[in-house]
Amino acid sequence: MKYVTTINDKEFEIEIVDDHHIRIGDRLLAVDFESVSGQPVFSLILDGKSYESYVYQGDEDWQVLLRGQQFQVKIEDEREKRLKSAAGGGVAEGGEFHLKAPMPGLVVSILVEEGQEIKKGQVMLILESMKMQNELKAPRDGTMGRIRVKAGESVEQKQALLSIH
Amino acid sequence: MKYVTTINDKEFEIEIVDDHHIRIGDRLLAVDFESVSGQPVFSLILDGKSYESYVYQGDEDWQVLLRGQQFQVKIEDEREKRLKSAAGGGVAEGGEFHLKAPMPGLVVSILVEEGQEIKKGQVMLILESMKMQNELKAPRDGTMGRIRVKAGESVEQKQALLSIH
Amino acid sequence: MFNKVLIANRGEIAVRIIRACRELGIQTVAVFSEADRNALHVRYGDEAYLLGPAPSRESYLRADKILDIAQKSGADAIHPGYGFLAEREDFAAKCAELNINFIGPKPSSIAAMGDKGKARATVIKAGVPVVPGTEAVGNMTDDDLLKIAPTVGFPLLIKATAGGGGKGMREVKSLEEMPTLLQSARREAESAFGDGNVYLEKLVEGARHIEFQIMADSFGNVIHLGERECSIQRRHQKLLEEAPSPFLDDELREKMGSVAVKAAQAVDYVNAGTIEFLVDKDRNFYFLEMNTRLQVEHPVTEMVTGVDIVAEQIRVARGRQLSYSQEQIQFKGHAIECRVNAEDPFNNFMPSTGRITHSILPTGPGVRVDTGVYPGFEITPYYDPMIAKLIVWGETRAQAILRMRRALEEYRIVGVRTNIPFHQTLMDSHRFMGGQFDTRFVEERFSMEAASETEDKQAEIAAILATLVAHKQTERSAQIVRRNERDASNWKWVGRWERMHR
Amino acid sequence: MFNKVLIANRGEIAVRIIRACRELGIQTVAVFSEADRNALHVRYGDEAYLLGPAPSRESYLRADKILDIAQKSGADAIHPGYGFLAEREDFAAKCAELNINFIGPKPSSIAAMGDKGKARATVIKAGVPVVPGTEAVGNMTDDDLLKIAPTVGFPLLIKATAGGGGKGMREVKSLEEMPTLLQSARREAESAFGDGNVYLEKLVEGARHIEFQIMADSFGNVIHLGERECSIQRRHQKLLEEAPSPFLDDELREKMGSVAVKAAQAVDYVNAGTIEFLVDKDRNFYFLEMNTRLQVEHPVTEMVTGVDIVAEQIRVARGRQLSYSQEQIQFKGHAIECRVNAEDPFNNFMPSTGRITHSILPTGPGVRVDTGVYPGFEITPYYDPMIAKLIVWGETRAQAILRMRRALEEYRIVGVRTNIPFHQTLMDSHRFMGGQFDTRFVEERFSMEAASETEDKQAEIAAILATLVAHKQTERSAQIVRRNERDASNWKWVGRWERMHR
């Protein structure tokens, strides 16, 4: 199986040759790869070098935490990738964004209004949790859609808070 | 549900009243009882006193390891106990005893022969494991039955080694 | 002399205090909220009593219930830890009334240091330097403050009189922006402390936050255990502390130490306390406030002095003299503490909740971990996000940094995100290694981005790891699909039966 | 000067050495058997290479493979740890041949101390007292030994010349029983060491086993780091060690220390080593043997001296001078180490294997755990049963005992049985607390039975706990039966279909 794996616009072509070998570019490497205690912690011995890492699956990408650094990793299998580029590539940038509560907490204040134009990075809502006030920011420019919560309201984790068009 | 629980010939009559109360003798006690992380480790708050203990189930009894002491505990529900005493009580002492390997290892030597009379505490077999030579002793007097292994043989955990009549 | 101590706290500090009691042969009473039934302090305490629902105000802040439990259980002393009721004069007073030994200072000392304005006035009288500002105690109007501001000089800080933790604090660069900032500071202070009073303080630029640990007994003996460097902060929350401060020499240490002792004596202090100072680039130091309780970061002092501060608190509270004279306090080596918080440093330090499914603690020579969590424990949103303190000792600061680096690399916590990567990045920062930082360092001159040469080398490894995990997952789900196909066969079979017999 | 160290070992000591290397900025190469792929030393090493199948002789004893890996990976030094290849003269010599730095003494020192007879002769020449016995080196016949025995005096010990760990050792009470015991000792020595040579030694009664830690550099500097009390043993296996020994005073310490230094100098010793002594009731001390390697129990010395012995080993092997002179070695407080073994103290210390499913380490002030295991790790029967070393430090011996007691109480390991309850019982023993014990104490005067008053109080709690667990289990199995009934319904339904349409 061949994959095209992308980190920060840099592409790696990685082929899983068999259980103990991969090919990256034209280098054949010996791998010994184990999950630790059934957890999302992985031990990799790659040509004798020993690495350990947390690997989490996100909605669209993978996060790899390795020696204090975090990498956002996109993985496509080659076939998938070819299909996509044949189709003209590029997912639509727009679409609705739904802000969900990243943790349970109390909505302290809402700093935007429905219909308002907002900028990427703008603080939309303050959520108090673990004695901290956490600012939830807009991930991109857009127009505020529906706001589903009120200041003073307690919310559950993953509860929908508001949307951006 | 009522139980008769025995430790070293001492009987305790313990009634599970509801999820948060037991009666022992004529004392009603508040209990708050939890397994820790789904392990055989249990946290008990009994009338405000906090205890923690390992509780293991053996073949016939329970083992409780509490603050460095181990207790062999026999538990019968009241009905069971009544039935047994009605039937005349007392399980037969005899019967065949099968010695199983308590761990994987190497049989170093066998110090008994089939048909031999043996005494309780007599060393029957030496099993090497973890660089240690472990003496396996007779749990009671008897006659050696079949010996199923030879010196020099590797054995798996729980493999039958020999029997005593 | 008391023999049973109720610990009016939770988390690592409750565990820390239980340990000290156990090592002194003293019985312990734990209290817990509904969220904490399985917490370590409940499991380790000799006794444990439920306080109420998870929110602090219904549990750990319920002074009345805690005092009830103390009386019911026969606890003749209470250790408040830090936070919650630790600096509540009324609680300490109530303990005294009920003949329960409060392991901490007298209520009058808490009161004297609790009001920041009053505290400033008190220590000024004792000859302790303070940051220039408004000295008057209590109710200054906005007009008063605006009038006095130019004499203090800009930039300055508006601070809440009842304050702490950066709440109600505003930085003011000019007179023009001051009225708005005054209002918002008062609003925040009002909502956080029920007290909208504020005062002004000159903003000391490039300042370090350095504090002195004090111990005092009831016979009038007061000593200091040296300083802690606490300048590594984010949003006024300390993240890392060390002892000694790379910025102090013996002369300055002695000078500040004796001033700290003087400040404590000014409020007739007993038990453990901390005098916080700001130190500017030119080594001028200013009293900031006194924390009239045990600090989170007390272990770094324990590591370099060998003094068990909690045990010493208990001895002093039992009416004994201090075990050490000032001369007997010797400093050896260097200690660093990293606060391990359940928050994601790659996502704006967002708190992270969830069940810890797996954990491997760093251990070995010179490493100490103070924690209240373990695999299977649930991190809830009700309390502060600190889940462990990782403390190391080394013969030198450089050795301590190298040791901390390896300990951070070893630490595994699965189930919640932690700020361990923040500390790892910090340990690699040249400015930190060089001891060149002030309280603005983390917010203004620090980035989680690694040097790009390191990043490039590791990116390929990260790519391989993610691909291997993704591949395994694809394989596994393929198997599950196949298994489900088999499992579904009963139903298919039923379906066939239906058709056959229709 | 080397920059990459291969660690020819496993378990806690491999982890300990990796930590020291990492803190010195040195790259590490781990080696592992098939049973140890997931071991901590493999996970923590910078590189890791498979040696072979689980049994030691096919993996950790394969000197050839280890040297191959060292060359292949570019490791320019090897740390052997303890056990396995640590005291193999030929291995150390082979390293030297291949230009690989062996972190330990010269091959000649290993050889000189490896043959117990030769070692005795060597140190006697240097004026070191030894237990009276047969001084001749090498091959004494049974006849020779039987002739010489009465001059040594009974009781005496037959010991294997190549010996260690009590193998080939026999206690002889009279001349009559000696021939038989000679034969069995020779047989055991032959099978354990491939060398049936034995010698005689007077049995010192009521003896304590006390050893001195030595450090020497290649410039002829030799110092000692004080003693360790190791009398708590069972079947010649140490179970607990402490520093200092409650039996020694400063005068005796200085005397024994300088003798220990002399013994090390007699074999031109370099790096870390240990001189073991027997000390009788009257404070006479006798050289027993020298261990030419790092000891399991080195941490207690680290805790009381502040010296990182493994880091110091590496420095010395890198050709540096010792970091300390004898005068700079100061002793502070008291340290105790408990060896936590996977064995059941309630079942004749039977080794216990299995997967560790859960673990909570004791932490907090003055506690150190050196371990190579973690939740999810499998304890196999291939290696020795020690899974962790729990080490505590206290200002006094009494404080260290109290701290050890609380640490043992906190330690949770689920999945294998451990000897933690043995240590708990030991900590409660009055004789241990009083420091009144010798090497026979555990076997002859110690019992796992608790004082009956304690037992009675706890029995009721144990009864309640077991009953609650049994009750929950009964309830749960009832639920499973009910659930299974529901699950089976598909099939019942199929059955009904069949009948309906028959």
Keywords:
heterotetramer; A: 165 residues; mainly beta; Glycoprotein, Type 4 Pilin; OB fold (Dihydrolipoamide Acetyltransferase, E2P); 2 domains; eight-stranded antiparallel beta barrel; four-stranded antiparallel beta sheet; 16 strands; elongated; C: 502 residues; alpha+beta; eight-stranded antiparallel beta sheet; 17 helices; globular
Q: What is the domain total for the residues of chain A?
A: 2
Q: At the third CATH level, what is the topology name of the largest domain in chain A? A: Glycoprotein, Type 4 Pilin
* Rg of chain A, alpha carbons: 21 Å
> What are the low-pLDDT stretches of chain A, counting only 5+ consecutive residues below 50?
88-93
Query: What is the helical fraction of chain A, as a range of percent?
Result: under 10%
How many distinct beta strands of chain A? 16
The ordered string of helix (H) and strand (E) elements of chain A is EEEEEEEEHEEEEEEEE
Q: So what's the overall shape of chain A? A: elongated
* Assembly form of the protein: heterotetramer
So, CATH architecture of the largest domain in chain A? Answer: 2-Layer Sandwich
Strand content of chain C: 15-25%
Q: How do the strands line up in the largest sheet of chain C?
A: 13-12-9-10-11-14-21-19
Largest interface: C-D, 49 and 48 residues
Number of helices of chain C: 17
Q: What share of the residues of chain A does DSSP label as strand, in percent?
A: over 45%
Average pLDDT level of chain A: 87
Query: Terminal Cα separation of chain A, in Å?
Result: 38 Å
The percent range for helix content of chain C is 25-40%
Main sheet properties of chain A: 8 strands, antiparallel, barrel
Low-pLDDT segments, ≥5 res of chain C:
486-498
What strand line-up does the widest sheet of chain A have? 1-2-3-4-5-6-7-8
